[in-house]
Hints:
Elements: H1 6-17, E1 28-35, E2 39-47, E3 53-61
Antiparallel strand pairs: 1-2, 2-3
Amino acid sequence: xxxxxxxxxxxxxxxxxxxxxxxxxxxxxxxxxxxxxxxxxxxxxxxxxxxxxxxxxxxxxxxxxxxxxxxxxxxxxxxxxxxxxxx
Length: 87
């Protein structure tokens, strides 16, 4: 793979991972908010595929964007109690 620009990389990932390029609005509730200086850390909860409630951290940078984004997927080896705390 030889990508020269971010749009090229984005398109490469979309094609390789066979994901939709459409925006999807995921509904969530905010359980708590913490001011971390340059960003706010929200503890949120959203509904999973099997209707289970999934807690997650959502970090929102302060100031003018655009800002880069990082999505972290973690393994759990069916040890559901580990969750995001192992990342």
